[in-house]
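Subject: Sanity check before I submit

Could someone independently write out the structure tokens for this chain? I want to compare against mine line by line before I put it in a report. The sequence has 394 residues.
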Amino acid sequence: MIVGFALYPLAYEALLATPAAPFAEAFLPAITFMVVVLYTGLFAMSFDFISGYTGYLSFGHAAFYGTGAYFVVLAANGQVPGIPGGTPFMITLLLGAVVAGLLALVIGSVSFRLTGVYFAMITLGFAQVIYELIRSWGYVSTNPTEGATVSGDALAIGVPYVDALSLDVGRLTGESVENLLGLGIDLSTTVVSYYALGIVVVGCYFAMQRILHSPFGRVMIAIRENEERARAVGYPTYRFKLAAFAISGFFGAVAGGVFAAYSRSVAPDGTFYFLVTADALITTIIGGFGTLAGPVFGTLFTQGLEDVLSTESGGVATLLREGLPANVLEADLFGVSLELFVNTAVDGRAPLYLGIIFVLFVLFVPNGILGTLRDRLGGTVGKRLPDYLRRYRR
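---
Independent answer below. Compare away.
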């Protein structure tokens, strides 16, 4: 998966230079959409860390995503007490994640006294309280409902205070980075942002994976499978759930921070709103609960569908309108022209089809993409795929 993500920009640019360019633009996600896949995929992984491995659905997870995003922007603007403006992004990113982890401890200390749907609802309640606070708090912006913007230079991912080992990220499409890290490679800043954010996402993935494969992670799974039995054998499940919630909030804030670094602006509706958590829930279900990497596949699936059905140039609707002859577009199709059908049933209808696909996944593929693949292989892909391929070599 990591190799595929690493090679994607090169393969995409190569396809754009071939006669297959219209099809590549129509059916393959653009690099800007792949950047979205990275930070939303990381947020979905943080959601899966607590919900998929302990069985406690956190409907208020957007609170941590928004905390990380706003902390980075406010720190970049010199509005966080004790943190001077110009502090390296990587430092403010970690500090924002720590703040989100502490916030998770506060929310969890109350929420984990409940279980099931009551836990989900109380976390949603906490998140909505924070959302309304940010929407009306003049300190974060002169117009809180519209959010805040990073002022000054772009934020950099890399080694703090070492410019040669840092990469600026942000929406700077059209410009280029020459002689990247002294390697003689020229890349667009969109691709540079893609790789820089990718390093953060991969690092967070391996960190969460290591935690899940530790004794601590085994207790998380024991809580999911049978919390009463885990408590009966002597594990303080309340403390383990709190710690897992704090870790999940930490990585959720990292996702929010890299989102803020790339977009250079934040708004309450795009960070703290409960639908941000709903998106993570949908992508996790499609990718596979309790798989950690599954939410990335789910995010890639949903973002890819949105890109293919986008109303912007390059979507499949644009390909059909520009590639089909006029007489074909004007042909009658159940009482309407093909062009009208494309405009009404294809162009920009990603939410409609995503809803249908989501229902189908819940009914027929409840374990998600990666979960179903693991079931078919009899274990994780990394462990079972070599044996599976070896079988066909014989």
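---
OP: Matches mine. For the report I'm noting this point. The mean pLDDT is 86.
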